[in-house]
């Protein structure tokens, strides 16, 4: 059995990489680490000693442990990189915890890197992939309906035969298993350094074993590299249609909506509302729909309700029901509606998160841990070169008192 401190070393290496990417220097105290890993101080000191011997941290008497300037490697043979806007936001902590547990059962580790909504930070993380290739990359696009200058970097990653798994949607013009080339070419004065640092990885096709290793890859890629990218998505148009039908069955004919315009999930949900209203013979008024941007979303997360107030004032009048992009927006909207004595407005949304369960919001959801399981199966199949194409996840309606 592997000593516990060795397991802690592996987990701390992932934390060091995340700290390095976030610009953090100081590690948690030994006492905090003991609580986090449920172990003795001596075990933590053994783990920190190994990291210090490797030159990854330095200890300062009376102050604690700090990162050094030596870069932390992905150790690509067993690391899965997840690039997302904020791993601590909304539904992501549960998704990440479930996926990490599944991957650890196959000796794979999950590293999460936040972009903070910044294209520049996303590019920095993608360039890190070129320098130190992981086994695979899960990419949660920032704003996939508008041009992205990082497409060329993503194409270079794919040319190195590193699997790219898009979560929810792919960037416009991006390459997946069902589309091939990106128009823009990645170029950099440091391209030669990427070439010199790229390295081959070897492994075997292990289906059902306790470990999964990527097969050999090279800078030039392979003949089947296009098949090693795909999208794990949801049937968002069908989900919106399901909500419209539910509201219509409860006597609502005039339905408003709040959807995000710079990501394809929001557009698909908007399209689903349009199609369902037309199919059911319900009136459709584009003025009843507020299409918000990522910057407005950030303002909402900073407790700025300006977007919701504008919706209530300009788009809600004349409607008896609202379909929201997600549960967080629905939760915040219901609070405002009640403060304005508009609690009779029906509200429905997506994700069936803790917001929906606590506020009794009618919401669409998936089976427990379904998304993480589909991501895991996709990763495992791609790394072992099995034929597997994930189908869009369908939604299940969870009716509650909000409708």
Structure overview:
The protein is of the alpha/beta class. The chain has 3 domains: 4-67, Winged helix-like DNA-binding domain superfamily/Winged helix DNA-binding domain (Arc Repressor Mutant, subunit A); 76-233 and 370-383, 3-Layer(aba) Sandwich (Rossmann fold); 236-365, 3-Layer(aba) Sandwich (Rossmann fold). 40% of the residues lie in helices and 14% in strands. It is built from 14 helices and 13 strands. The longest helix is centred in the N-terminal third of the chain and has 19 residues, at 4-22.
Low-confidence stretches: 174-226
Number of strands: 13
CATH architecture grouping of the largest domain? 3-Layer(aba) Sandwich
- Count of DSSP-assigned helices: 14
- The total number of structural domains is 3
Radius of gyration (Å): 23 Å
Structural class: alpha/beta
Average pLDDT: 83
- Main β-sheet description: 6 strands, mixed
What is the CA-CA span between the terminal residues? 54 Å
What percentage of amino acids are in beta strands?
5-15%
Spatial strand arrangement across the major sheet = 9-8-10-11-12-13
The level-1 CATH class of the largest domain? Alpha Beta
In N-to-C order, the SSE pattern is: HHHEEEHEHEHEHEHEHEHHEHEHEHE
